[in-house]
Amino acid sequence: MDLRRSPELWRFAALVAIFVTSGLVITYLVLPPPPDDGPKPPPVLRVAEVPVPAGGDVVANALDLVRRYATGEIRIVLPDGSARALRRNDLGVEINRVRLAEFVREALRPESALRRAHERKDEDAPLDIPIPLLLDSERAISKLLDLKVELDAPAVDAYVDLEAKQLRPEKIGYRLDVYGTLARIDAALRAGEDTAQASVETIAPKLVAEQLGNVKFDQVLGYFETRYATGGKSKERTYNLRLAASKLDGVVVMPGEIFDFNETVGPRDEAHGYRVAPVIAQGELVDGLGGGTCQISGTLHGAAFFAGLEIVERYPHSRPSYYIKLGLDATVVYPTINYRFRNPFDFPIVLHETVAGGVVRAEILGPSRKLTVTYFRRIDEVIPFEELERPTPKLPEGTRTLAQRGIPGFRTTSSRLVRDGAYGVREKWSDSYPPTTQIIHVGSGPRDLEVKAADDNHPEYVADEYLVV
Length: 469
Description:
This protein has 469 residues and is an alpha+beta fold. The protein has nine helices and 28 strands. Helix 2 crosses helix 3 and helix 5 packs across helix 6. It starts with 6 loop residues before the first helix and ends with a strand. Keywords: Membrane, Signal, Transmembrane, Transmembrane helix. InterPro entries: G5_dom, Glycopeptide_resist_protein, Vancomycin_resist_VanW.
């Protein structure tokens, strides 16, 4: 049947549609609206993973938890997994109360950015309130500098333990980055965390045990000895001698490598264990930290010299030394005046230096190698010393003492002849030693002043005009 040709059917369909629509409207109007749950309750608030009590003043409750956190400890984790605990209040931590109150109000307000961000993340999880702590940089840096002193360690090259005749492995060095660690602590505090990773720079050793697997040290290629005083007055100087020698003993110098005395021995200061003992300064003997180190460098120079090593850098003293011949001394001052030599051989060499029984002995060890080394020295000029009188109230008037014995100055020419079978090499150089002023102390104090004044007990300095060793 064609609906288009039946008006009655069209009218019937329209009436049905009207009745259905009217029924739906009436049903919607008659049925009650769905229940309104109201605003969602705020999430559980936390400070440093501890729930904030909901009753009473929520801001005050949060402040109590922040105070508890601020007085606790934070662990600084080191690269080896160990940790050092520091109290947060020792770092100068302060609470920004105004900012904390703002954070709490934001957490309680449904339409706040803090709440919306939390709901997008996980609306059923607790909401961790940011901890607004202010770090006192000066106090924190002071604490971290103390930690740096404790933790910093230089890299240690692999070396030969000559007493045990064993190869000792290398050690990695560490250097604490104070400002990098401070930034990490600040971030950890703001996040309410109990640990922060220390920012530490690792220092790789230059020489590792794998490089020394075939080191031989059964032969003495060259040696040299000097003597030192062993009396009670020389106790501090002897201590410095042993300390400096210990830094050299067992050091391996690879083929072609340049040995650097200042780099190997390090600073001669109180922080590195050195004591006050006589040193030469501008031609005079005065007390100074690390006195005696030059005897260690001079003795090592003698051993390196007679082992046929290549001397790269060496300086004479500003006055002759009683413990070593003119031309064979080697003065060092950290970090400006250095002593360096190069290993010219195709095999590693091992340094051995000992201090015992009034004798400093240095040896250059390696495999057997027969070299003949001869040292020649000629004094070209002798320069007379001057005499100076210095008044001092520490002596009674009329008293005269020899405070410093004068030593003539010298200009010398030295040479070394190194023979390897029929092959020989000669080197030549000049040294200049200024004269050392003779100083007489003249008393200007009260005549009844009682003091024990002693003359300089060094003997008159003499040197051979021509020397062959």
